[in-house]
Amino acid sequence: MLNGEKMLFSGMQATGRLTIGNYLGALKNWVTLSDEYTCLFCVVDEHSITVRQDPATLRQRARKLLTLYIAAGLDPEKNIIYYQSHVPAHAELAWILNCFTYIGELSRMTQFKDKSAKHEDNINAGLFTYPVLMASDILLYQTDVVPVGHDQLQHLELTRDIAIRFNNIYGEVFTVPEAYIGKVGARIQSLQDPAKKMSKSDENENASIYLDDDRDTIIRKFKRAITDNEACVRFSDEQPAIKNLISIYSAVTGKSPADVEREFEGKGYGEFKLAVGESVADLLAPIQKRQAELLADKDYVDGIIKNNADHASYLAMKTLRKVQKKLGFPERPR
Ligand code: TRP
Questions:
Q1: What is the DSSP string of 13-24?
Q2: Is the domain of 230 the same as that of 164?
Q3: What is the model's pTM?
Q4: CATH classification of the domain holding 238
Q5: What is the number of structural domains in the chain?
Q6: pLDDT tens digit string along 185-207?
Q7: What percent of the chain has pLDDT over 70?
């Protein structure tokens, strides 16, 4: 079977172009964790349609994300890498869990408030029940740990509440999951405004390093990254832009911030920014190469998609059947 006894589940949306923040803050940790746990890494395409998507773009981005998981080092023979929409049990359990979630709880979700402010013309019910689908993703696999960013902690807390509520009524049906917050490199800020998180939807192209940026673009963006007038590479809250660049360089090279300060003592920002840019370009080059190979190898990737969806479905159905039985849905005659 897979790597460990405990189950780990995580997922990303295939909307927007992923940034090094997504890699350093999430994917890289997944690769490390995958040695220790039995892991499901999902491309959560059903979550994406809470906001209108262009079908061709969504399809293309979903495939790119799935191949990125593999290119980043997640072995598709040892981890279950799949599309949410290929496993109908997600949506089915989500319906059931909707009946165990209160409108008051969902109304308190800050992501719902933010997204409905941003998409005022399309505040659909899916946007509102988004966290219930996420709970179903997690609970279907009896997940023990869920690596998530800070922005998803509230959703995870709700998932736990739903699981506990259901278990209180029907007995031990769901494992109550724990959040896993990465230790290092988790927070990468914008290169143009260190007060903002680096985002896949920033209007300013220069603010984010995308995982598919080429070497010249990466180096150019770091050259243009804002700094300050201190002229000193120091890891301090008084120099947030430099601090962010040091964090990136540390996360990429594994050097501690103190080592980085020492390395660039007495050196200018130009030299420092070039070193950061080159380290990021060097990090991404093999991932991009592997991803391009995978995108070109249709049969191999299709095989993986099929096998992994079958495996995920098998696990998901075990939980779904149990839930249906507990609820009193009629048994299927054999
Ligand atoms: N909502 C998460 C995000 O936007 C993605 C997600 C969906 C997820 N289902 C999940 C993350 C289950 C962890 C576990 O980042």
A1: ---S--BHHHII
A2: no
A3: 0.94
A4: 1.10.240.10
A5: 2
A6: 457 999 999 999 898 878 899 99
A7: 98
Atom of ligand 1 nearest to the CA of 131: 1
CA of 301 to the centre of ligand 1 (A): 23
Looking at the structure, tell me whether residues 248 and 305 fall in a common domain.
Answer: no
**107 and 218 inside one domain:** no
Answer whether residue 17 shows pLDDT above 90.
no
Query: Is the domain of 322 the same as that of 221?
Result: no
The residue segments making up the domain with residue 216 are 205-291
Report whether residue 138 contacts ligand 1, using a CB cutoff of 6 Å.
Answer: yes
Helices (H) and strands (E) in the chain, counts: 14, 5
**Ligand 1 pocket, 9 CB below 6 A?**
yes
HSE-CB for 180 with a 13 A CA cutoff = 20
What's the chain's length in residues? Answer: 334
**Is 40 near ligand 1, meaning CB less than 6 Å away?**
no
333 domain-assigned: no
Distance 131 CA to ligand 1 centre (A): 9
| Dihedral of alpha carbons 238, 241, 245, 250, sign | positive
